[in-house]
Amino acid sequence: MSAKSAKSIRKGNVTTSKASNKRTQVAPDGLSVEAQKGKARARVRAFVFSVFAVLSGVMASGIWGVDGKFSFWVDKVGGTEVSFTINVGLIWLALTLVFAVMAVRQFFNGAAFRWRRAIGLAAPLLVFGLLARLLDGTTANLTVFLTNTLSFAIPVGIGAIAGIVAERSGFLNIAVEGKLLVGALVGSVVSSITGVAFLGPIGGAISGALISLFLAILGLRYKVDQIIAGTVINIGAVGITSVIFQRILQPYREFNNPVNIDPIRIPLLSDIPVIGPILFSLSPYFYIALALVLFFTYMIFKTRWGLRLRSSGELPSAAGTVGVDVIKLRYRAMLIAGLLAGFAGTFISLGGTGGFAENSSAGKGFIALAAVIFGAWNPIYAFGAALTFGMASSAASLLAGLGVKFPPQILGSVPYVVTIIVVAGLIGRVRGPASAGQPYDQG
Q1: Helix, strand, coil percent content, the chain, rounded in steps of 5
Q2: I want to staple 282 with a disulfide (CB 3.0 to 4.6 A). Which of 66, 97, 286, 416 is the partner?
Q3: What CATH number belongs to 145-400?
Q4: 321: confidence class by pLDDT, cuts 50, 70, 90
Q5: Where are the alpha helices (DSSP H) in 303-325?
Q6: In what order do the strands lie in the sheet with 81-87?
């Protein structure tokens, strides 16, 4: 072992020892410093949940007896429709009880309470309650609302997995937006030229991988600041795709006339009344996204590859001492992340939108990064966050489409406000991989 490696290991041991000593310092009440901080954060969360419970109770009392009108497509979209009404006050009363239970459990269970999961369960009910109140008697079709929610979550959810894989390895992957945009463009062009549906997603995935490789070379070989490099790629992607769209795709529309990947109906399951048109008549992208969530959750947390990936993002010096080639692992993680992000981008242009449009990613890559943080770098939680974002976006679109006199941007901003609160640590601790974004010398 080289002197440099030994010095690095000693430094790592000292750092770990200091951090361990800091965590194990005992306060007068018998709790460690870290346990005290966790208890304080739990009390703050309990207070926040109790405030939401009070506000929901006030809302329920103020609109008791007001009915919300909704409908579902029974057999297929545009087919037989069934309508129903529900007391909006009951929805807010249920929200009051949910937030009250969350506050009580958070107060008594402390840091052991899984508050992210609780927020994930309460958020859809909160969005639905706001939607019912704002509609004010206007009938809304929930089949369209829910299918739009799931469709929105496809590029965001897959993009979030791309961010998780890269950052778990120790590389800050903020260029997801640029990869989505380029993937959408390349996917549309490849599909238009070849006339073969499945070649579009393959072309988009390859383009994302190439961009990701370029970003990895900048960050790993030349030690360029990963945030700056990712920002440059995002800005460059917007400029390059805009020029190509205006100079080539608009004059020569045959290059932007792809074979759309239409929704599929799963036999038998799609015939289930109400549920079938919502869950089993969707784009193949959605089912692929679900498979990717389960696959990468297993790979990251249950396999040796996942252990090496996480150790490279947390303490690469320790991973290197046991024979892990951290640099090579990060290159591979970035290639996987690029494939995922480029593939996700192709949904934007091939998922029934009729081709590529200028700046069509519309910030979904940045929303994916917010889902990564909100989901604590866990694919399942991140996809749940993507669904929450999708529900808020779908609600805003629905309100605008029905002509409801309420700024839809306010409702659409709710998930972002919650994410800012989470990132700021006001209701809990959010900590990503310790070495993400830090240059590493293999030695």
Answers
A1: 70, 5, 25
A2: 286
A3: 1.10.3470
A4: confident
A5: 304-314, 316-321
A6: 81-87, 67-73, 140-141
- Mean pLDDT, the chain, whole residue set: 85
- Tokens linked to 189: 């062009």
C-alpha closest to that of 290 among 266, 260, 258? 266
CA distance 13 to 435: 15
Q: Can you say whether residue 156 is alpha, beta or left, with left for phi > 0 and alpha for psi between -120 and 50 degrees?
A: alpha
Q: pLDDT band at 411, cuts 50/70/90?
A: low
Residue 416 confidence (pLDDT) above 80: no
Q: What is the pLDDT of residue 229?
A: 95
Whether the per-residue pLDDT at 371 is higher than 60: the answer is yes
Distance separating alpha carbons of residues 65 and 62, to the nearest angstrom: 9
CA dist 44 and 428 (Å) reads 8
| Nearest in space to 64 (alpha carbons), one of 140, 139, 132 | 132
Query: In the prediction, which pLDDT does 20 show?
Result: 43
Of 121, 104, 122, nearest in space to 113 by CA = 104
Residue 18 has pLDDT above 90, yes or no: no
Domain boundaries, the chain: 145-400
Question: How many Cα atoms occupy the beta-carbon half-sphere of 9 within 13 Å?
Answer: 12
Question: CA neighbours within 13 Å on the CB side: how many for 182?
Answer: 26
Q: Hey, what amino acid is at 22?
A: K
Burial class (CB in 10 A: 0-12, 13-18, 19+), 81: middle
Looking at residues 81-99, what average pLDDT do you find?
Answer: 90
pLDDT for position 9: 38
Question: Residue 220 gets which letter from DSSP?
Answer: I
| pTM, entire model | 0.87
How confident is the model at residue 435, as a pLDDT?
85
Task: Count the neighbouring beta carbons within 10 Å of the beta carbon of residue 324.
Answer: 18
76-103 mean pLDDT: 89
For 42-98, the three-class secondary structure string (H helix, E strand, C coil) is HHHHHHHHHHHHHHHHHHHHHCCCCEEEEEEECCCCCCCEEEEEEEHHHHHHHHHHH
**Would you state the pLDDT for residue 394?**
86
Q: At what angle do helices 304-314 and 142-168 cross, to 10 degrees?
A: 70
Cβ-count burial 390-429 (b if 16+ within 10 Å, e if not): bbbbbbbbbbeeeebeeebeebbebbeebbeebeeeebbe
| Sign of the dihedral through C-alpha 236, 237, 238, 243 | positive
256: which 2 tokens?
């932007």
